[in-house]
Amino acid sequence: MGSSPRRLDVPTWVVVIAVVGGLFVLLPLVAMLVRVDWADFLPLITSPSSLDALWLSLRTSVAATALCVLLGVPMATVLARVPFPGQRLVRAIVLLPLVLPPVVGGLALLFLFGRRGLLGGVLDVAFSTTAVILAQTFVALPFLVLSLEGALRTAGTRFEAVAATLGARPATVLFRVTLPLVLPALVSGAILSFARALGEFGATLTFAGSLQGVTRTLPLEIYLQRETDPDAAVALSLVLIVVAVIVVAVAHGAGEPARRRLKVTR
Amino acid sequence: MSGAAVRLRATLAERGVDVDLSVADGETVAVLGPNGAGKSTLLGMLAGLIRPDTGRATLGDDVLFDLPGSWTPPHRRGVALLAQEPLLFPHLTVRQNVEFGPRAARASRADARSVADGWLRTVGVDGFAARRPDELSGGQAQRVAVARALAAEPRLLLLDEPLSALDVAVTGDVRQTLARALDGRTAVIVSHDALDAYLLADRVIVLHDGRIVDDGPVRDVLDRPRRAFTAELTGVTLLTGRRTASGIVTDDGLSLAATVVEAAAPGDRVAAAVRPSSVRVLAAEPGTATANLISAVVTGLEPRADLVLVRTDALPALVAPSIVADLALAPGTPVTLAVSPDDLRVYPA
Hints:
- By secondary structure, chain A is mostly helical.
- Chain A has 13 helices and no strands.
- Chain B is an alpha+beta fold.
- In chain B, the strands form 4 sheets. A 6-stranded mixed beta sheet of chain B has the order 7-8-9-3-10-11, sandwiched between helices.
């Protein structure tokens, strides 16, 4: 239990490289903050096109996160708990969007859901808000599945076995034991998915296009403004960063009590 | 709680298990055996957590499994399992843990609560109902686990070494709680401690290499062991041979005076049990002696708590370290072992 108070000696050059790495992440953000035009900041981010983009991004990212949880929890549960032939292959396929260039993902979605796509006749959703949500879900889903499956495997099945011998049906075991036990992982997986959905660009542009108020999310708006109004692009970028930080902080705070509680038994 | 007799016949090649077991309604059976004998596998098969290759098991009139083909999942068996660790659900309070079984059986919130509080009182932890499991001591947590298992109203209770993970200081108390809980209940308790069998069980089964090698009332099996495995469990040394007028002549040819605890005709196969702590080690043969004297050679010395087990080519003896030093005992040392006839108990093999 508890980490030892003794500090492990790390070679100085490792610390130096680590600091360089940290600056590599931090300095670009600082550079951007320096460029923010504070005088016109509010008008810039409250222009109709900016508000449309912000509102659309929030709505679609929340919907995509919900969809990720809805699909990802059963997927992770099956991968972690049900042994079946070809499981490694299935897992590789599920994680494919993680390594696929988003533009390619968008194209693939287009060939399935587009007007002349495989399901085009039945389900033409390309270039709609639904398409934005589908594109975001497509790229964000692996984050949730990956973090949840790992947690399920680590948690093991001992508590589930006890619950079953106490007379709990499999569904009861899932909702009252399995999921509460991996709640911290579920929360952090959902945060990762939300962050990925919020930043989605390539697949959205390819599959959903860039129609103000319908498919033009914040990243698309920022990219577009960069050409005509760099100050607006910088201001919106800052908004995106602030939203992301707030969401991560709030969700992290929500997951913390559960994490603390579980640490004792782990 | 009538009609909860158990009948189990099962094989599982992967773990080398081949058992045939029955437990009467209301009977508590202790399953003893060394690690890896298949004790936990036996419980797993009854609970529905381990699937045997072949076999059939029934609880009362219900078929638990009849392979191949019929398999009742764990949640429909009415079999509760109490493990070594309490495994209390960490995200629920103590009371919610105990309510889990009744709630799973669709009891109302109020009913579940009164059942839970009743069991928490019975096992003596009713003051902790609102706490989280991580705020309990090991003994308290295991009591809650007992309450949780019983609140599910199982027709068969399985206990897998329920005391072995506990601090020695509380083992006695929790064992008493278990003894009250098991009274009149159909239960199978797995242990490697013969004390659990004496204090908790009506009958004992000895499992060795996946097979039942001994089966009978606790005192018959453990006080008069007929197999070396069984004798080891209670820490006694077993000798086998034939009955003589004064005691036993062992298969190795030792003639020993002994106390006959169960009648056997001269010439009959008998067994004799002696505790290593009753065997004394002498440097040389004393002039006069009422004890059996056995010439032996030391083959090894093993520390046992604050004593030393002196292994010889005849009987092992448990002695104080000072004796080992005084007699300069080492492998190869010739010694004389003395055993009083009062300490050597003979009974039919």
